[in-house]
Amino acid sequence: MLKKRQKIFYCLCSFLFAIALYFVISLKISISLAIILFIFSSTIKNTRSISIFLLIFFFFGLIVANFNTPPKTPSVIQYYNEQYVTVEGIITYVDERLDHTKLTFKSQSIKLDFNKTKITGKVLIKSQLYPKYNYGDFIELSCKLTSPEPIEKFQYDKYLARYNIYSLCYSPKIILLKHNQANLILQKILHFKDFTSQTINQTIPEPQASFLAGILLGSRKGIPDKLLQDFNRTGVTHIIAISGYNITVISVMLLNLCLSLNINRKKAFWLVTFGITIFTILTGASAAVIRSAIMGILVLYSKYLGRANHTANILIITASIMCLINPKILLFDAGFQLSFLATIGLIYLSPKIKKYFLWLTIKFSIQENLISTLSAIIMTTPLILFQFERFSLVAPIVNLLILSFIPWVMLTGFIQVITGFISLQLGQLIGFTSWLILEYIIRTVSTFSSLPFASINLKINCGIMLIIYFCLSLFIFSKQKNIFIKMFK
In which compartments does the protein localize (predicted)? Predict the structure, then answer.
């Protein structure tokens, strides 16, 4: 007989499986498959009750996925794709790049035959760097809308769908109508973020300034393309990305740092959790950042308890709630997938491989940091090979060499910013320490990136990826294998 927590686990797995099936195959086939599996499982002894619950959660997953697929009606902006339109709405996100700016535009009304009609939906606008627009600006946009399409092997349309963006605008005519028309609290936070970024740039030189802004604020603006390529080749792009992968790994590093400073586990947990919360607020508290923060705190909670089995249901419940809010992230958000896998690695795989690294010193948390890094890399590599077709041979050693310094650069960078608010000269003095650490990281990454074998192109298909994860699951959950057998007794 299954325990209550096991029933919850399998029901939520059924819910997630239904969402995945909906986006892979048609709704009708998914329903037919569910009915066939229900009939089959009902013939097995003592499984009728759990089969009913699995079926209910499966259908609920299909309903959620179907509900989040927008209808193409005149009330949504994507209905007018491939047409020249004039719409009014609010800028909800500004992403400045080196040579252009990407604006996320939330439409409110459209001009049709000299009349305004209410409308919903988002448009991704590619505009020039100037004039500058800000979050909360109310604008009139005139543009020919186009539908997102795959770019070679990159499923750009599905990538944007996770943000509920189904329309693009490349040659906009923009008229600014009003300022400050969005959430005032978030607007103040974003202004503070910009002020923080300016303070960083005034206290240390480039490219270290942009690098530090990437670590503290998740901003890639100003980071040279060559340096970004070096990060990519050495498998450390996550340190400048606001992702669950980054936050989960860094949160463990920060926890280890606190413990090495003789801060007790309970205080360390709450201290790092507070830090993650502040980081989430400073970066704008977008849905993706909040998801990443939740994953990071979940890993901290597991480390705080010291028992992974207490977090199994919390992990699946967390993933289910996230997919309930936005089911598209399950298959179309690599960041969510990588963060989920990294979380599993840090919670479940790291204790399994720890016995192989007992020979390493525990000083400066070297042993724990290496185990955490390898656990995350092992769990995410198959997905990276499947989606990005690139494998960094030097990623383990580079991560080991630099990740231990990330908490320190975050600490010195934070002090640098705070003192910079008071006095730029004092901020520059403190910033020298940050600059030294950042320079070490950049030189390490650049050195390993220059090696001819640093990164290789390697692709695996979906079948091989699933086989690898099945084998990893057998290794991780070997002691729990009887749980699956009990279902059919």
Answer: Cell membrane
Do residues 437 and 411 make contact, with C-beta atoms less than 8 angstroms apart? no
pTM of the model as a whole? 0.76
* Residues forming a β-bridge with 107: 89
pLDDT at 251: 77
Render pLDDT for 92-118 as a digit per residue (tens, 0 to 9): 888 887 778 899 999 999 888 778 889
Q: Which of 304, 294, 233 is nearest to 456 (CA)?
A: 233
Give the pLDDT of residue 483.
45
Q: How far apart are CA 170 and CA 36, in angstroms?
A: 47
Q: If we measure between CA atoms, which residue out of 107, 184, 148, 205 comes closest to residue 432?
A: 205
Parallel, antiparallel, or unpaired for β 84-96 and 101-112?
Answer: antiparallel
327 cis-preceded (ω within 30 degrees of 0)? no
N-to-C CA span, the chain: 9
Tell me the residue type at 345.
G
d(CA 101, CA 473): 43
Where are the alpha helices (H) located in 326-365, listed in sequence order?
329-332, 334-344, 350-353
Q: Is the dihedral of CA 139, 140, 142, 144 positive or negative?
A: positive
- pLDDT for 446 equals 92
Cα–Cα distance, 119 to 108 (Å, whole number): 5
Tell me how crowded residue 220 is: count the other CB atoms within 10 A of its CB: 20
Query: Domain 77-182 falls in which CATH fold?
Result: OB fold (Dihydrolipoamide Acetyltransferase, E2P) (2.40.50)
For residue 425, the 8-state DSSP code is H
| C-alpha distance from residue 391 to each of 38, 234, 329, 375, 376 (Å) | 41, 9, 24, 16, 14
CB neighbour list of residue 348: distance below 8 Å, 6 or more residues apart: 308, 476, 477
Distance CA 81, CA 107 (A): 13
Token pair listed for 150: 């795959």
- What are the sequence ranges of the domains in the chain? 4-67, 77-182, 194-475
Look at residue 190 in the predicted model and tell me its pLDDT. 82
Q: Which residue has the tokens 């499982």?
A: 41
